[in-house]
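Need tokens for this chain, all 726 residues.
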Amino acid sequence: MSVKGTNGPGKGPGRAGTALRRSDGSTAMHAERPEEIRNVALVGHSGAGKTMLAEALLAATGAIARMGSIADGTTVSDSDPAEIHQQRSVALSVVPVVFSDVKVNLLDTPGYADFIGELRAGLRAADAVLFVVSAVDDIDAATIALWKECEEAAMPRAVAISRLDHPRADYSRALAAAQQAFGDAVMPLYLPVGAGETFTGLHGLLSGMVSEYPAGELQPVQRAATEDELAAAESARGALIEGIIAESEDETLMDRYLGGEQIAEETLVADLETAVVRGSFFPVIPASAETGVGTAELLRVLVQAFPSPVERELPAVMNLYGKPARALNCDPAGPLAGEVVRTSTDPFLGRVCLVRLFSGTLREDTAVHVSGHGLAERGHQDHDSDERVTHLHAPVGSALQAVPFAVAGDICALTKVGNAETSDTISAKDTPLLIEPWSMPEPLLPVAVEAASHADEDALARSLAKVASGDPTLRVERNAETGQLVLWCMGEAHADVVLWRLADQGVQLQTVNVITPLRETFAEPAKGHGRYVKQSGGHGQFAICDIEVEPLGRGAGFEFVDRVVGGAIPGQFIGSVEKGLRAQLLKGVSAGFPVVDIRVTLVGGKAHSVDSSDAAFQSAGALALREAAAAARIQLLEPVSAVTVMVPDEYVGAVLSDLSSRRGRVTGTTSVGGDRTEISAEVPDEELLRYAIQLRSLTAGTGSFRRDYLRHEPVPSNVTPAAVGA
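Here are the structure tokens for all 726 residues:
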């Protein structure tokens, strides 16, 4: 079928224009109006074929002479060194193609769950989503969850069933799986002609025409469907027409159709496009990246059925003080407002920022304001700076092509913008704005690292700052209690990429076991005698103190009580004893962890009129506490977190069993609708170090959790924490 004539303007505001410009004959281009732009995120599980499909669309539009290879690291979108190293997408990439005088920014997103931050950045920059489903593999639960997320945001969607050239490809099974996973409004516009090696074309259900792709040719040849092909497609065609009519705003259309009237193809196409933009109808297009079959039909859907930026609601904006500002419109003449959706570092160009422009026009040699707020807890401190845009580019994978300007709705690349980080707002210098940041998951896998040598510490700090500036899902923390440098990551694959990027920048480091910040307390009352007496000529050191220690309830902290009578210890040295006690509390008395929840009573001591001093009584207080500890039973305390786990109902039993094996105490389960359950539990932090990995394994990538520190509790006698064992 032909969704619409490929050269004519589309219906509605901003459909395909004709003013697209190219720069120096390359793939770089910029549109002069938002109506000439489509921003489409390619999503789907790892291995579904997103990257190669983007490569096929580039080849079909003549942007590249021939398709690259993932194995060889020659694809346009997977050009990040980490992607070439890992042989999979790990970062958001923008690949623009031009079709029917419309610039389509394809946002190739990673399919692996660890890189969900890059996926969410792609969704933020996109106005529509193309779900790529493999005809060989099943649809994973994470893709189904992403569909529901897009559904809640009313994002226009379509489905491309890929890899149909594979010997094991099964289009009917893949379509049925997509309809079961995504709903009945998922309907094919085309049927494949042939299968596997004989998959050579598409049969348009509305037009009755067949597009055949001769071997080695990028453009299809049109012919009328045979009688047998029409008969085989009759059922699917009827279901498609009824599905389109059900979405029509013309209430008479269904009665006319059921009465035997032949509804004009133009009417059906118009209603189809309206329903796609509304996010209530989802066309399916069969395709093969390897052979190029289906690329022309897919491009027509992207250009003519998906909305332009002017048809989508823009994110909320505020001023730098957090007060709401006037709502933005996708207007090139409006106030400048864009968002950095990805930041990378080039050895020659420095920091490179991909920016989705929501409003205004950005030109070279323009003064802009860069604002970043709201990510301080992840190590991205709030920042504001005025900078000048000296170089403006159109991104084509990792390549950059100079353009004179970028209009609202487009995606551009800025270089040498020193302070910009991912999720920052780019706005006019005289009217700075802040775009409400997009939702990002919390990194929950800790990885402790150390510089290989003292000389590498500065290099590690500099490189970490570069890596963190482009990755808002990475949290860098220097644990105040353990002193460890901890990288909080989304999972093992994310951690591998972060460590690889650091090593690629020449940083020598090593990973070490994460130390859980334990604490110590007295399990029983005890007494201590601290005697610090030294004579070495001249003034000596003399201080003696006696203390009594008793345990307090959890969370009570430290109490110091002075019960010295008769001036046995002069008043000016009472504070010295307390200072020495507090210093020893921080150092610990048994395993080197801070001591908490005790009361220390100073009951007596002695002083010397000449040799006693502040330092001497500090030392005596510390000695007294250590002696009391030697005579008492010391209890280790471990941190316990309140954990909330969100899982599909089918995995509740497995998750509950796993939490029990982690010494967790389940405090409740709540059905939250949508076949999902929220589980509340209290779990020791020691048992949560690798929980992000295990939960993903238990729930096929669909489970998520959050944690909040609750309290410290005694470590059971049959458990030896790893921090002590180390």
